[in-house]
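Input/output pair, single chain:
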Amino acid sequence: MHFSRTDSGASDKGPVLLPKLFRRCAASYVTHGSLQNLLADIRASRSDKFVRTSDFLKGGVAFKQWGNAQGGAVRAAASGKVKLALAPWEFVLKEEPSTLYRDIGGQRREITAF
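Output:
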């Protein structure tokens, strides 16, 4: 990921990729073979929290579960897909720590270094 400051928004084009949402999508797809259970997986991850940016900038630290059905940052769309309920700049995420694993000789081993 590369960040650079520009004086105008003219050069800022393209989709927004939220690394946290991408990781949750990837994990859900690998676990279930599709994204049909993504919202359930997001809601099951109780340590993934968010707070509105405006509150965070005022010193607010009342983070709540980001998949919460009542006022969460992600929701189910009518089609059953997951959609953002807020614009990406309207919330700050506090992520649950994660552990990476790999298969070595048929055994699941934690990755501790790269």
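The mean pLDDT is 77. The chain is about 25% helix and 20% strand.
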